[in-house]
Amino acid sequence: MAPFNTKRDEGRRKLYDKYGFWWCPIKLFEYMAMARPVVVSDVGEITAYLDGAGLTYREGDTRGLAESILRLLNNLEESSRMGERGRRLILEKYSWELHARRIEQILTALA
């Protein structure tokens, strides 16, 4: 499995280097919608979506990842606040319904 992951990661890095962005996995939004705090690496634009709904760690820093996870596990009140913040963000900014309305507005303006 490691060679597959290495090749996949290499392809992602080429895209990132070429276009200067990183995509945002749907899982992030799914966890936020379920009011779960998230932990993400600081790669690309993904951290811009958090806005207090989780923690970040430096890419490749396994100790930082572990510390972030432990922080959430050891601070349940803080974790709960982050999770609720994520849910609110989804409802207010990132729901499919909101995106559909925005696309409809753009298409209507172009027509």
Q: How many domains make up the 3D coordinates?
A: 1
Q: Give the strand content.
A: 5-15%
Instruction: Please tally the helical runs, counting DSSP H or I stretches of 4 or more residues.
Output: 5
Largest pleated sheet: 2 strands, parallel
| Whole-angstrom Rg | 17 Å
Short description:
Pfam families: Glyco_trans_1_4. This protein is mainly alpha-helical and 111 residues long.
Topology at a glance:
Layout: H1 2-19, H2 26-33, E1 38-41, E2 54-57, H3 62-74, H4 76-94, H5 96-110
Parallel strand pairs: 1-2
Helix pairs in contact: 2-4, 4-5
Give an overview in words:
This protein is mainly α and 111 residues long. The chain has one domain. The chain is 66% helix and 7% strand. The chain is built from 5 helices and 2 strands. The chain has helices spanning 2-19, 26-33, 62-74, 76-94, 96-110; strands spanning 38-41, 54-57. The protein has a two-stranded parallel sheet with strand order 1-2. The chain starts with a helix and ends with a helix.
Keywords:
111 residues, mainly alpha, two-stranded parallel sheet, 66% helix
